[in-house]
TrEMBL record:
Organism: Empedobacter tilapiae
Top-level taxonomy: Bacteria, Pseudomonadati, Bacteroidota, Flavobacteriia, Flavobacteriales
Name listed for the protein in its UniProt record: DNA repair protein
Annotated Pfam families: Peptidase_S24
Domain spans labelled Peptidase S24/S26A/S26B/S26C: 29-141
Domain of life, per lineage: Bacteria
Amino acid sequence: MNREIKIIDKELNVFAVDTDKAKYYIPNFGYVNAGFPSPAEDFVDDKISLDERYLTHPESTFLIIVGGESMYPVYQKNDILVIRTDLIPLHNDDIIVSVNNDDYTLKRFDKVNNKLIALNENYKNCVQINESDEVVILGVVGVLVREKSNRI
């Protein structure tokens, strides 16, 4: 994957997706229970490719890194988001959006009330979108990747 970074505002960095390289497959051992283990679970030895799973539409997909805290705790600094540009935003989707040529930002889309909502209670809670506003939606969050530590 190409790691070229483009900064689109002070909180978001975009990574281009390059799909011309070889695919890498990793072992998939099935599901893990978050409760009590089931002795009946069969051992699964399958392989998956993360790009086949999460980058299914590379022509309409880009990666972006969260740099701000307005959507905390759902999204945290340095989270990697897989953004889909071919999806129409639905109610309560998280989107990359600009209103009236302002910086692009990550917000929850309240389609019913036509608002953009910050999830962090320390930030201005919402932006009302009016008919006269110029709204540019870059895409919808499809996948969130969060690294547990800096060991990678």
